[in-house]
Structures are given as structure tokens and as C-alpha cells.
From TrEMBL:
It comes from the Bacteria. InterPro entries: Cyclophilin-like, Cyclophilin-like_dom_sf. The lineage of its organism: Bacteria, Bacillati, Actinomycetota, Actinomycetes, Kitasatosporales. It comes from Streptomyces dangxiongensis. Keywords: Signal. Gene3D superfamilies: 2.40.100.20. This is Cyclophilin-like domain-containing protein.
Amino acid sequence: MHSAVHRGLVRFAAAAALLPAVTACSSDAQEATPPSASSASPGPQETAAPTPPSTSERSTPMDIRVTLDGRRPVDAALNDSPAARDFAALLPLTLDLEDFHDTERVADLPRKLDTSGAPEPTAAKVGDIAYYAPWGNLALFYQDGPAASADLLVLGHLDVSAAQLGQAKRITIEPTS
């Protein structure tokens, strides 16, 4: 129990020390990291540099074009994580989607992504594009996901209704430039 309290205090001190640096460097003051995001971490995690307020956002977004079931393309953006940059290197992609636990649509990627330097885990939200590292698959959330996990990396976000995303059978993802 003593080590759990010690880890909690170390996390709190590290988060408190990084908060001024992260907020001072942020160009978007509209959103802040919820206090529970760092306490929801499943175990000790060392980081070499401060992480952005949300893994769904990035300081220099990479816009992508997403088409579900051959319909009109929707807006989407990838964040600036190493895994998102590695995913972008695979584009363009067309993948068949399957439902997983009435929460997300999943598809196998052609190869596993680089997960080194992954940001602090966050729970996936509706519209998030994520990568589940143990299986090497892409996940598109049409319901809020489970608690934050180091195995699930949010790569970006897609602007589409949960109903449309939940029924999608095929996705095409392309870079916009």
C-alpha cells in the first residue's frame, strides 16, 4: 500500500510540475486536461517530455479524408504522436470493418505501428480513431471506450455521427495533400 501511495504522490508532483509548461506552450486554451486523466494511468509511466492536453488534438494537425461505405467524405485529423505519424505513412488505405463489443468498429492494419514515445493513455471517446497495439488493429469508436489503457493509443478524431460510424462496413482513409 505504501508504494501505491508513493506512486500517487510522485504522479501528482510530476503533473503539477508539468502543468505550467503544458498550458504555457498550448496554442488552444479552450480545453484542459481533466485532473482524472493522469490519475487513471494503469501503472507507473515515465515520460521524457510533456504531453499535449489531449491525444486527440495536435499542435499541427494532419487532416485526412475518410470515406465510410463509399459515401461523402468526412473531416478527420490525426494527432502528432509517433503512432499517428506511422499510421499516416500507410495511407491511402481501404479496410473492411467489423463490430467489436457494440462500442467500436475494428479493422486489421497491414502491419503493426510504432508505439515508441506514446503519450499518456486516455480513454477513447465517440469519433476517436485509435490503435490497439496488442492486436495491431485500427479502432473507430462509436461509443465511449473503456478506461484508459497503455495498449490503446488514440491517433486522431473523425467528425461523423455515432450512428453512421456504428453501421459502417468499409472505410477509406487518404491524406488530404
